[in-house]
Design brief:
single chain; mainly alpha; Growth Hormone, Chain: A; 17 helices; globular
Length: about 425
């Protein structure tokens, strides 16, 4: 890639226009990319038990494939690509990354061993690492600060349609074409979109809605990271959001839990459980964005308080999911729990925009992605797998019970996340830049 040839705010008109049709069209296209992001990320959880049976793997190994293998390269490449998104052409970056992770999804279906699948999952994480930071940077240049929480919620909400598709369609396809072909079928559409993306999405002006007098050129990577970490509120938000996203890491095991606890098939879970998770998340993210967009008109700190409250609500709801013996009641609590998590997703990321300059915004979001990937999407599934194997061996309980006990452990992290969001809100006024 050559140096960024797009205009900066200094070169653009000093009177930044309100977001119009082009901004909203860009948001829809970015949401579509994010849909493929979530779709290819989610499908593994439904196929997990079938992969385990064919390749003769343990819960710990599946935890590594479902979490750490994906998250390690997502985290590493996320920082680099996030820094690149602050300096170079973001649309080209997203298009390239979409092609990479779509090919990696196809290669997952061709894997014949744990090691091959491990490297395919690494590649998937490396590709998807470029989506969120680059997209957030573009959204920040398309929408003014008071509208970003809603815009990010819409972006994430469209993405969560991919979660719905991944959880529902994959279970049905699994029984008809097998897990290998499911990976391939999910990867092919992304390749087509990657080719069309440069035609559908234009690079916006950088720093369009920022305060005048701020530097416009992104600093070198290490300096950019130091710039973000030097902000007290940003550090607190990194901790809070990492803890918040551990619940998503646990979701890798949700389909397997239902298969074991209620002796149902993947298709049966997809029909109801997948809908509960997917629709609940979408409803939550859209409603959360609308509510916060209204609340921040009264107090900007609602972007911090709202995810704190939803994190507090998440823990008891998922506690009921795992302790309820009736599957119908469990599905109800699963829907409510997914809705609660979705409510706080947009604000949990939007509040980072408040305390970071536009020239390091993609790097800031990449830092969030780094820590949420390592600890949330990466280590959480691995720890659950290890605990599940350990509880089964130590207490001689069945696989459903051992997994249930393991799934309860991350719920404490939601409470810790709520406390950290409240703590972050205390210093937000001093660190606010836009």
């Amino acid at each position: 890639m050559n140096g960024d040839t797009t205009m900066t705010a200094a070169e653009a008109s000093p009177e930044a226009e309100a977001p119009g049709l082009r901004a909203h069209a860009a948001l829809i296209v970015l949401g579509l990319v994010n849909m493929f992001n979530y779709m290819d990320r989610t499908v593994f959880s439904v196929l997990l038990e079938s992969i385990k049976s064919e390749l003769l793997l343990s819960d710990a190994q599946m935890g590594i494939l479902g979490g750490l293998a994906y998250a390690a390269f997502y985290a590493i490449f996320g920082l680099t690509v996030g820094w690149m998104a602050d300096r170079y052409h973001r649309v080209r970056i997203i298009s390239t990354c979409l092609a990479v992770w779509s090919l990696a999804s196809i290669f997952c279906g061709l894997a014949r061993s744990f090691l091959q699948l491990f490297f395919a999952r690494l590649s998937l994480g490396a590709g998807e690492a470029g989506c969120i930071p680059s997209a957030h940077s573009i959204i920040g240049d398309c929408f003014p600060p008071q509208r970003r929480a809603l815009a990010i919620s819409v972006f994430t909400g469209i993405g969560l349609i991919g979660t719905l598709i991944g959880l529902t369609a994959s279970g049905v396809l699994l029984e008809r074409v097998g897990w290998r072909n499911v990976f391939i079928l999910f990867g092919l559409p992304g390749l087509a979109l990657a080719l069309l993306l440069p035609l559908l999405l234009k690079e916006p002006v950088r720093g369009r809605f920022e305060r005048t007098g701020l530097p416009t050129r992104s600093p070198p990577l290490i300096q950019a990271i130091r710039s973000v970490l030097a902000v007290r509120t940003a550090r607190r938000l990194l901790i809070a959001t990492t803890l918040y996203y551990c619940i998503f890491g646990a979701w890798v095991w949700v389909p397997t839990y239902y298969l074991r606890a209620y002796d149902i098939s993947a298709a049966q879970f997809s029909t109801l459980g997948g809908l509960c998770l997917g629709i609940g998340s979408i409803v939550g993210i859209i409603v959360g964005g609308i509510l916060v967009n209204a609340l921040i008109g009264r107090n900007r700190l609602w972007e911090f308080w709202f995810p704190a409250l939803t994190a507090l609500l998440t823990a008891p709801l998922f506690l009921l999911v795992y302790l309820t013996e009736n599957i119908a009641a469990s599905y109800v609590f699963l829907f409510l729990g997914a809705t609660a998590v979705g409510l706080g997703m947009g604000p949990s990321l939007a509040c980072m925009h408040i305390v970071t300059e536009h020239r390091v915004r993609a790097t800031a979001i990449a830092l969030v992605a780094f820590f949420t990937s390592i600890f949330g999407y990466g280590l959480t599934p691995v720890v659950i797998g290890l605990l599940s194997d350990g509880f089964g061996a130590w207490f001689s309980v069945d696989v459903a019970t051992s997994l249930r006990w393991a799934m309860l452990c991350p719920l404490l992290l939601s409470i810790a996340a709520a406390l950290m969001y409240f703590v972050a809100s205390r210093s937000a006024h001093q660190d606010e830049v836009n």
